[in-house]
């Protein structure tokens, strides 16, 4: 019935497992090493400080300043997080503390669907709804001239994209807080909101920080949706209504021409390396917050 | 309760309710605007034809190339990721079960890899392609997307496999089965529904992601017919059609977005339904 005997099958299965495991475990190192080696050419010719803080981006003249892209990415990410954070926190508290169980059963599929919508579709929705909203209503209302394609548009789209991600973690965290703690507070005469404020939030703080951190890292690397609504203008944005450019959008927009200009490919790989480092760093730090949270 | 406390209580409760319904409202708006725009411009012709001459100026044709391309790319990547992911998840939960420290390190590494943005995988895949001298092709796309969905696949299988009770493992050993038999015959059967869910989840991720295939899979108007040729994908077809100035082509982007969203919704519905179905092979403790 079998081609191999039992012992041989065991050996085959075992080596299959080990090889797969090694491949997966070394994946982050491969990624880092590959991108580093590729961007080495650029790092060799320019100093790191120059690359990061120079404002001039003219690849055909050999000028590679990543500052506008880094600033654009940071703006988009931070504004998105400022919008998302309170919404997610309030919702997570509401669905775990104030409502009956069935409400979570309604929320979960909704969160799943939000999480499943691909980023191109979010981008398309941004172009259809968010960009016209900003250029036709919000801009004129605030008496600001804007195309609609702006940092703000990207942040709004992004803030919705990371809701399911952050919300899921927050719900898990609030669910894991023991009921006895809340009961103790309530029995001392605290109101429900006082309990939430002084027991729940304090206890969950490391977890909440971690959830926001993971969301931040996710938002920082988001490509397509941001690319479609941010405007893609290499300039330091002065206000939220200015168009900008982000690091992932830079890579995605220019892969076609990068082989024709010297060091251009190196520069784009350096951008990818920056993204990788930011993502690994954030996830690393936030992981320790989660570990700290689990210890209590 | 003082009045101030009462007001505070009320105030935050209202805020919370607003936030919750805001999320549901946004979801409804997104779904509504995609369907409203998409249904208007979708047609049978779009689903069954490949782009003909002048398609990108508003002439006849459809997006069959992108639909089939996306399906073959996502299927290939999911199968490959399954073949690498299942043994890893089993190894962690059967062979390393007594070595909690190592397991935690591996889980931590997987979480790190999960957080890496897909554009980085795209750039990495592109670099590998140049290194090995491969052109943009279905194969390059599959390999890149495999790397991207691997952590998702493994971590979601792992979450299911770690709930298998240790008694089941001990029973299998006591009947004389060795570790790999326990892993592949007992553990997989016990958690089959969760494994299928993990596979479907990864498939949904694979089919929806654009940034990782942008460099590696290329784009073509032909149907996919070989691993070594470029392949069209739905997310990219949406992206390209949307950047056209011709209104008809933009309308097709809305229709393509509807198709993609529907595929993903169906896949996620399936994965919810399947959890309930495969209870027969599961031993309840």
Summary keywords:
heterodimer; A: 296 residues; mainly alpha; MetI-like fold; 2 strands; globular; B: 285 residues; 2 domains; 12 helices
Describe the structure in your own words:
Chain A has 296 residues and is mainly α. Chain A has a single domain, classed as MetI-like fold (Orthogonal Bundle), CATH 1.10.3720.10. In chain A, strands 1-2 form a two-stranded antiparallel ribbon. The longest helix of chain A is centred in the N-terminal third of the chain and has 32 residues. The model of chain A has no long low-confidence stretch (mean pLDDT 87). The mean pLDDT of chain B is 87. The longest helix of chain B has 39 residues. Chain B folds into two domains: 39 residues; 223 residues, Orthogonal Bundle (MetI-like fold). Chain B is 75% helix and 0% strand. Chain B is globular. Chain B is mainly α. Chain B contains twelve helices and no strands. Chains A and B meet through helix 1, helix 2, helix 4, helix 5 and helix 6 of A and helix 1, helix 3, helix 4, helix 5 and helix 6 of B.
